[in-house]
Amino acid sequence: MAKGTGYPRCLLLSCVVLLPGLSGCATSVEPTNLTHASATFAATPLMAAAASGNLDRVVALTETGESLNILTENGSPLMAAVAAKQDRIAWYLLSEGAAPDLAAAGAQTPLMVASSQGSRRLVQLLLSAGAQVNASNANGYTPVMRAAEQGHLSVVKLLLAAGANVNVSQGGESLLMKIVASGDLLTAEMLLAAGADVNYRSPEGHTALDVARATSSQDLEMLLVQAGARH
């Protein structure tokens, strides 16, 4: 890629999701600055450039050899772009070879953050780049759990279509139980339609139906009974 164009070269990723202001596919050259390393945020100018949405600065830093897969106390440059909802920056970093799941051990991945934010375009970008749809953090949360707990139905649907485990559990509660506890009827309907186990029992023997009754959620109770919940 010639310097000064302001447009990144692209991989197959760019053929899947097109973003405003970025051109179509071209022949890619394997980047050389993909080695995983650690550094501080202050010593990594690419982090600030990614978070601010300064594409020209990100491109310039990448072309001078700044590592795309460097991990700071605030995560990777990709994480900075995702957290700031900078779609174009995330697209560029992924197309240049940024690792989609790079995060500290037990920390949230970029896909978890994008899912929690309800950033459907970023979720699609990350999935297209090979992000692990069922990755979990130290607390057992997965991307679909993050999206569901925030009521981001379109993102939940996208993650489920990509293979997210609808029967994931965390802290002894199934995802369905957590959603029932929050009173979110629409998300509960989607989870059941995707095959959520309506009769999953917690270590204490509680089910989603027990949760609905404990919270006096009659609509959810009826939904669960219709889905086969046992009394």
Tell me what the structure shows.
The protein has 231 residues and is mostly helical. It has a domain at 169-231: Serine Threonine Protein Phosphatase 5, Tetratricopeptide repeat (Alpha Horseshoe), CATH 1.25.40.20. Helix content is 45%, strand content 3%. The chain has helices spanning 13-16, 45-52, 55-63, 77-83, 87-95, 110-117, 120-128, 143-149, 153-161, 175-182, 185-193, 208-214, 218-226; strands at residues 37-38, 70-71, 169-170, 173-174. Helix 4 runs antiparallel to helix 5, helix 5 runs parallel beside helix 7 (120-128) and helix 10 runs parallel beside helix 12. It is elongated, with a radius of gyration of 20 Å. Residues 1-12 and 23-31 have low confidence and may be disordered.
